[in-house]
């Protein structure tokens, strides 16, 4: 009995760590926006969002755990050059280029700015000072990754869950109003729009790199058996998935019932900030600030840790601590360009690499079926890239008429899922070629 309790305690701690790593800035600000814009179609939209925000990240955790916790080893199944380039892009995207600066910017805009005079909040100095203090704390927490279980999983996460629970319960017990009317793409295809909006959380990309953080933490706990590491990582993924589902549904409900009380907004951060004040008054703003700060701190620590470990392995002459310092300073600098600019710059990149990551992940889960045939990966990812590349270019207002006329003939193109059928066809052709070569 004692051994069972110890097993549950250790595994739960790792699960809470993974949940805390996932729950960052995007996870807080995007569900309320979806809830408000989806209106009466909140259910199909949220199902789509949960697939890319919870279901696929869980599968990614399993895929990376089976690959030994290393995204590069997973990507190397396509080819070593692809492995280095793709993995580096993924790490930088969810690290110092986009996701980590977003945590600093959101921490300021929702956690600090509401308590400042309006004139001061619009000035560059408060954001700059906040970013210095925020990333100084991040640096202290991330400098020694073996302490992550104690510092994040056992301390920050329980507090984070408590403040989320308070907001959620209040929003269900005393809803602010009735759901509004769906707008935009939610009126035509709420499921697929919710699916694509889940990209913005970057959870699938995060899941592909968090494996190394979890394995490092497990080794710090003295767990060296590979099979046990895989089982613990999968258990942690399930815990994190349950926690994220609760948070997304709760925050989506808050946004869905908020229009009567706060009006319509195109900024999820503003929606949740105003909703918290309606639900709890000034205390609500304080609760939200604590929630945002804890979520962003834990996510930034995990992402910087993963980045530093990867690039230290790629360039062993540069120490882990040096990379941590470099990436922390870079993240602090990018934070100061502002949240809107960061989100606008990240979306085209996500539209390009997210489909590649999902196809790679799904193929890795059925890898035994085709015995790891490289041609299957290559022929599935090539058409995926050509379609997703144009989605990214289109988001940057770069349109190529002949290119677009071909892609428009693809199923689900209007829903930004035009890559799906070509990926399946490419994989099937690769499978046939692989079988013929074997024979």
TrEMBL record:
Alphabetical UniProt keywords: Amino-acid transport, Cell membrane, Membrane, Transmembrane, Transmembrane helix, Transport
The membrane topology noted for this protein in its Swiss-Prot or TrEMBL record is: Multi-pass membrane protein
Q: Which PANTHER family match?
A: BRANCHED-CHAIN AMINO ACID PERMEASE BRAB, BRANCHED-CHAIN AMINO ACID TRANSPORT SYSTEM 2 CARRIER PROTEIN
Q: What is this protein called?
A: Branched-chain amino acid transport system carrier protein
- Family, similarity comment: Belongs to the branched chain amino acid transporter family.
The protein's matches in Pfam families, at most eight in alphabetical order, are given as: Branch_AA_trans (PF05525)
List where in the cell it is found. Cell membrane
Organism (species): Lysinibacillus agricola
- UniProt xrefs under InterPro entries: Brnchd-chn_aa_trnsp_Livcs (IPR004685)
Which branch of life, at top level?
Bacteria
Q: What is the role of the protein in this entry?
A: Component of the transport system for branched-chain amino acids.
From the record, give the transmembrane residue ranges: 45-65, 77-99, 124-143, 155-176, 196-218, 230-251, 286-306, 318-339, 345-363, 375-393, 417-437
Q: Does the keyword Membrane apply?
A: yes
């Amino acid at each position: 009995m004692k051994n069972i309790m110890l097993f549950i305690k250790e595994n739960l701690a790792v699960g809470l760590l993974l949940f805390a790593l996932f729950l960052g800035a995007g996870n807080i600000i995007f569900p309320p926006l979806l809830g408000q814009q989806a209106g009466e179609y909140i259910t199909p939209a949220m199902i789509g969002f949960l697939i890319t925000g919870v279901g696929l990240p869980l599968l990614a955790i399993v895929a990376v755990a089976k690959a030994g916790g290393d995204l590069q080893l997973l990507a190397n199944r396509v080819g070593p050059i692809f492995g280095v380039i793709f993995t580096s892009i993924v790490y930088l995207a969810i690290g110092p280029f986009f996701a980590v600066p977003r945590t600093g910017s959101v921490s300021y805009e929702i956690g600090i700015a509401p308590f400042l005079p309006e004139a001061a909040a619009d000035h560059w100095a408060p954001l700059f000072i906040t970013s210095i203090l925020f990333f100084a704390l991040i640096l202290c927490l991330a400098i020694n990754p073996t302490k992550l279980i104690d510092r994040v999983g056992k301390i920050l996460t329980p507090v984070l869950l408590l403040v989320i629970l308070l907001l959620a319960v209040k929003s269900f017990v005393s809803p602010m109003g009735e759901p509004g009317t769906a707008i935009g793409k939610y009126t035509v295809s709420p499921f697929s729009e919710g699916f694509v909006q889940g990209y913005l959380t970057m959870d699938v990309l995060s899941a592909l790199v968090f494996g190394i953080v979890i394995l490092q933490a497990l080794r710090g706990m003295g767990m060296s058996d590979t099979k046990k590491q895989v089982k613990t990582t999968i258990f942690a993924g399930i815990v994190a998935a349950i926690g994220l589902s609760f948070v997304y549904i709760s925050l989506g409900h808050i946004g869905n019932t908020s229009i009567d009380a706060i009006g319509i907004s195109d900024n999820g951060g503003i929606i949740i900030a105003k909703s918290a004040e309606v639900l709890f008054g000034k205390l609500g703003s304080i609760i939200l600030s604590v929630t945002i700060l804890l979520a962003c701190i834990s996510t930034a620590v995990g992402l910087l840790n993963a980045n530093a470990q990867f690039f230290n392995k790629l360039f062993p002459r540069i120490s882990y601590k040096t990379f941590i310092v470099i990436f922390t300073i870079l993240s602090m600098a990018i934070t100061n360009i502002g949240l809107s600019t960061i989100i606008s710059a990240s979306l085209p990149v996500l539209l390009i690499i997210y489909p590649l990551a999902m196809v790679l992940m799904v193929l890795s889960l059925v890898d035994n079926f085709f015995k790891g045939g490289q041609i299957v990966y290559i022929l599935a990812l090539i058409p995926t890239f050509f379609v997703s590349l144009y989605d990214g270019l289109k988001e940057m207002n770069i349109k190529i008429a002949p290119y677009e006329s071909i892609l428009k003939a693809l199923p689900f193109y209007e829903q930004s899922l035009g890559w799906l059928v070509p990926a399946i066809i490419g994989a099937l052709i690769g499978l046939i070629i692989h079988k013929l070569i074997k024979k």
